[in-house]
Phosphomannomutase
Amino acid sequence: MALIKSISGIRGTIGGKPGETLSPLDVVRFTAAYGTWLLQQPGSKKVVIGRDGRISGEMVQRLVISTLNALGLNVVDLDLSTTPTVEMAVVFEEAAGGIILTASHNPKEWNALKLLNAKGEFISAADGARILEIAAADDYQFAGVDQLGTYTKNDTALQQHIEAILNYPLVDVAAIKKAKFKIVVDAINSSGAFAVPELLKALGVKDITILNGEVNGRFAHNPEPLPEHLNQLCNEVKKQDASLGIAVDPDVDRLCFVCEDGSLFGEEYTLVAVADYVLRNRKGNTVSNMSSTRALKDVTLKHGGTYSPSAVGEVNVVNRMKEVNAVIGGEGNGGIIVPDLHYGRDALIGIALFLTHLAKEEKSVRQLRNSYPDYFISKNKIELTAGFDLVKIFDHIKNKYKSQPINTEDGLKIEFDTDWVHLRTSNTEPIIRIYAESNFETTAANIAAKIMKDIQEVM
């Protein structure tokens, strides 16, 4: 059981003792701290909230709404929604901020409060630290009976989101409709079950099959859209002779594709393909985090742009995108950020741009994937036990590989000629992630295995 308090939000497991899990008391405490911080900002007293399809979603939702109202804040409730839809609704509603109730790719026992500012973007590190200070001191004041906040339901936010996608200049609905795609979607028993089909229908796709389409939060498989979890989708695409498969995570901000032959397009190549299409039509720069494939850099240079890496984390990617005026960016986990739509990972705009690209190229998904350079990333993680000494672990690795170029901007990134390995702790889970990339799959796996063995030496 766990409770993780970070600048990116509050995440934990449901059930257990307050202060050790995401208990009802912790939900109220951190919602009150966030609401207090919002009240210290100028302007609106309106807050947008939405949730994914998790089992605990309704319970957490009721606690959050009541707490915000008790502070005197006016709640606009999207109810079941997607992370990017909530982000855009903050702007549509001219709200002071928003809370997304989702633990993203984590298993069903987890939930979280993801906190947004008035731009519909994740709060800054400084603002996150301030909110944690308020929570630690229980420094909040609730409103009197005549100043309690109001509650409003918004049932149109997803339609507004989809309409914005349809009107996006690089989305070609006519081309997608003409292509007559046959698509299988793995909705993982959450918000994708209604959001993705609604988008596809609006794009003119008529032949749609939904797997795991009951929104009950009892995920049919591990909800992280990784290769080992997508066998059902791969098999169904091949069985139905479909054009492609689409997989999203529970809150619909991560996206990956399956080729028509049942093979994986590769989550790392979601951003590569979308960036390739955007850069063909709009010259500019790109950004991804330093754990993402170098293929994005290759594609960016081919189109005359400049590629810039960032530290891992959506806030860091967005900040770097703003610094370099990037026209497209994101993360290798299938997160697409289209800045002139909104600065947030958005699987729905990713789907629309990918299908437009595919339709205009008149290629199969496998043929499109084959047009990009082949790199292989071995993605691994080591769970950390209570009382771990992270400084000792990282110092051990740095000393062992001191003859290699090492970047410490975000964890440790070690270069080995044309290969690399990146170690960092997660902001959302008690783990060390170990990513290694090479031109050869076995080489990437061997590099990661060697580093993991090195870590185990001092754990």
User: Anything to note?
Assistant: DSSP finds 15 helices and 20 strands in the chain. The two ends are 21 Å apart (CA to CA). The mean pLDDT is 95. The chain has four domains: 3-156, 174-258, 268-370, 376-456.
